[in-house]
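pls design
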């Protein structure tokens, strides 16, 4: 086994990066894949969602990245979902970006940490902060693919093009990095939210935009406090269940076809 590593990123805040990471991860885990979610955000939303509050002094991804003596395996936690694991962000996450700047081999430290577990997971999903800094550069250097969640509530194109420019600059550090696609989130067709954005996105990026979109579902907002995924609260006829199952299928196909 050799993990497929995927970065979910968009430097814009609130585009559903974290909820996509959790629910795509859960969809993969449900079909028996072993999945590691890595929380790279100071906000630690993903960690709180799936692990609750970490006890003081707990080791987290920051230590595994910065301190060679801390093995990544020792910071990984299980979650209420079988086959789904988390490398959590802790209170030391605020130091990571700063300390990376003066670290030797600073763009490659997450890649080095992940290399310890590539034989243990089918998929590793990296949940990125809403900013581009050395942490995100580390994520892109360590990834096979990036996936860009785009919120239908905002006209996103200028931001997305800027993001692509930044990713281009990172390419020399990771030649194999590929675009897995754009995922349109928070779509509300009934209210007409997202129609224009969807059209512009599909006109611009064509087949790179996933066919499936994530529809608005207020139930998603309540999931973190319940430590649940959409698969725990909906049956197969639920809309978010269907959305994430279909998104997972599209992503697996793209990876298998060598997108
Ligand atoms: N399909 C959806 N329907 C309704 N609300 C949603 C949906 N997806 C995400 N949300 C809500 O939108 C907010 C932002 O989502 P999320 O935290 O996943 O975005 P993010 O891109 O990770 O944000 P940040 O940039 O702050 O890390 C959250 O309150 C989340 O519950
Ligand atoms: Mg987030």
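designed seq:
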């Amino acid at each position: 086994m050799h993990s497929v590593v995927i970065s979910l990123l968009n430097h814009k805040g609130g585009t559903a990066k974290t909820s996509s990471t959790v629910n795509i991860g859960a969809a993969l885990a449900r079909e028996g894949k072993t999945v590691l979610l890595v929380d790279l955000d100071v906000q630690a939303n993903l960690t709180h969602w799936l692990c609750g509050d970490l006890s003081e002094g707990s080791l987290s991804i920051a230590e595994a990245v910065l301190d060679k003596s801390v093995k990544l395996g020792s910071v990984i936690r299980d979650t209420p979902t079988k086959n789904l694991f988390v490398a959590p962000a802790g209170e030391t996450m605020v130091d990571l970006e700063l300390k990376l700047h003066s670290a030797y081999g600073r763009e490659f430290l997450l890649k080095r940490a992940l290399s310890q577990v590539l034989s243990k997971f089918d998929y590793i999903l990296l949940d990125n902060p809403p900013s581009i800094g050395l942490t995100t550069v580390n994520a892109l250097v360590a990834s096979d693919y990036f996936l860009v969640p785009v919120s239908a509530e905002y006209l996103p194109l200028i931001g997305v093009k800027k993001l692509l420019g930044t990713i281009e600059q990172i390419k020399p550090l990771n030649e194999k990095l590929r675009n897995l696609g754009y995922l349109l989130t928070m779509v509300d067709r009934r209210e007409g939210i997202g129609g224009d954005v969807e059209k512009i996105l599909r006109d611009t990026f064509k087949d790179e935009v996933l066919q499936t979109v994530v529809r608005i579902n207020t139930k998603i907002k309540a999931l973190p406090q319940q430590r649940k995924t959409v698969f725990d609260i909906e049956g197969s006829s639920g809309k978010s269940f269907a959305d994430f199952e279909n998104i997972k299928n599209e992503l697996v196909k793209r990876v298998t076809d060598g997108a």
